[in-house]
Design a protein that fits this description.
The chain is 35% helix and 12% strand. It has helices at 18-24, 38-47, 71-82, and strands at residues 28-32, 52-56. It is an alpha+beta fold and 83 residues long.
Length: 83
Amino acid sequence: MEVVGIPDLETEMLNPDFTKVAEAMGMTGITITDPDEVKSGLEKAFLLDGPVLVTVQTDPNALAMPPKLEFDQMKGYALYMGK
């Protein structure tokens, strides 16, 4: 909700290890933590038979930027960062 200008309050959540969840369900799970591993991790997933869950760890503080920013989005982000 950063773009709207609403600070995160009481929304802390520690994500489970989705790779282990997938493995507990009988699927293959692949975790990617390094940007240099994305290509090899996806290639491995496509070579395997059956369902595969690929988890890609990203920077939780990085703002996902849409291709075109509207003024209200820039204003909301500025308000968020000011709070």
